[in-house]
Amino acid sequence: MTTVGFIGLGIMGGPMAGHLVKAGFDVVGYNRTAAKAQPLVEAGGRGAPSIADAVRDADIVAIMVPDSPDVRAVLAGEDGVFAHAKPGTLVIDFSSIRPDVTTELAEQARAAGFRLLDAPVSGGEAGAKNAALSIMVGGAAEDFAAARPVFDAVGKTVVHVGPNGAGQTVKAANQLIVASNIQALAEAVTFLRAYGVDLESALEVLGGGLAGSAVLNQKKGNMLSGEFPPGFRIELHHKDMGIVNSAAREAGVVLPVGALVAQLMASALAVGDGGLDHSALLRGVERLSGREGT
Ligand code: NAP
User: Is NAD included in the keywords of this UniProt record (predicted)?
Assistant: First the structure.
């Protein structure tokens, strides 16, 4: 039986770890806030009180934490994975972080005798709960092949996109597309409401044409109800807009829409909506149009 140490059992990591148990892995989970390991234990996994305990006997270590400094701390920190896992362990980082940080951590991993894949995911909370994630993987082909059973347990579309860092670069592009898509949907919703069109009917028919999208399918409920429980928090998408805009700048690529949507995301954070789902970009459009809560 393959043992997986899973670090970060939040909105995404929690259900992903549960799917690994269902697929027959021995899963030892660690979460900073211990209570969040409970669902994994109830699903047949084991809870660990520290990263060291979660990874000591692991064949594979999976990580799902928010940002670049968090991944750095979990991997390279004093009490981290590199200090406590067995040499040769395969590390799969599912978090969405800066491509340059991934590349640097992969080099550090190699120097310490580990193998690392960057494997950020897309598909939202629903994708995690339904084991239907899209997974964009960067790293060595043989490590990708070794990790395939883990990927197949949590994802539907799994693609090896290149060397370390390439997975994160594809994820940055993903976040540019998703944010722009949500912003366009939010503007359409506000426009339709201003004309008193029945929104449910309008979104149903829009969903069947070229305007249809996974964003529309997954986010229309929030747009209709005006409630935005996360999901994917604005503060995390703000992080991702920073990643894509700075990486584009470094490459000399101009992203006019990406820059604008990043500002709108920053505005949502500044007014206190950082803990809401990213579909709360709708609230920003309503504010700009003087139509709050309509
Ligand atoms: P989340 O619910 O906040 O979960 C993050 C987990 O990481 C929490 O359990 C948190 O512990 C833990 N954590 C945070 N900082 C840590 C640190 N320094 N050391 C150890 N553990 C730490 O976030 P999420 O929505 O699952 O997102 C995780 C990653 O997936 C992010 O990179 C995000 O961009 C990406 N992602 C999210 C979605 C989505 O729809 N939510 C979709 C695709 C990708 P505590 O419980 O103590 O806070």
Answer: yes
For ligand 1, atom 8, name the residue with the nearest CA: 10
What CATH number should be reported for the domain whose range is 169-289? 1.10.1040.10
DSSP-derived secondary structure for 74-102: HHHSTTSHHHHSPTT-EEEE-S---HHHH
Domain ranges of the chain: 3-162, 169-289
CB atoms within 10 A of CB 244: 25
Q: Are 174 and 258 in contact (CB under 8 A)?
A: no
Q: Does ligand 1 lie within 6 Å of residue 232's CB atom?
A: yes
Q: Which residue from 174, 188, 176 is spatially nearest to 262, judged by alpha carbons?
A: 176
Instruction: Give per-residue pLDDT as tens, 171-215.
Output: 999 999 999 999 999 999 999 999 999 999 999 999 999 999 999
Q: Whose CA is nearest to atom 25 of ligand 1?
A: 11
CATH superfamily of 3-162: NAD(P)-binding Rossmann-like Domain (3.40.50.720)
195 Cβ contact list (under 8 Å, min separation 6) = none
Note the Cα 21 to chain centre separation in Å.
20
- Pick the catalytic residue: 86, 129, 156, 171? 171
Backbone angles phi, psi at 97, to 5 degrees: -135, 180
Atom of ligand 1 nearest to the CA of 12: 26
Q: CA-to-CA distance for 181 and 225, rounded, in angstroms?
A: 19
**pLDDT tens figures, 126-179:** 999 999 999 999 999 999 999 999 999 999 999 999 999 999 999 999 999 999
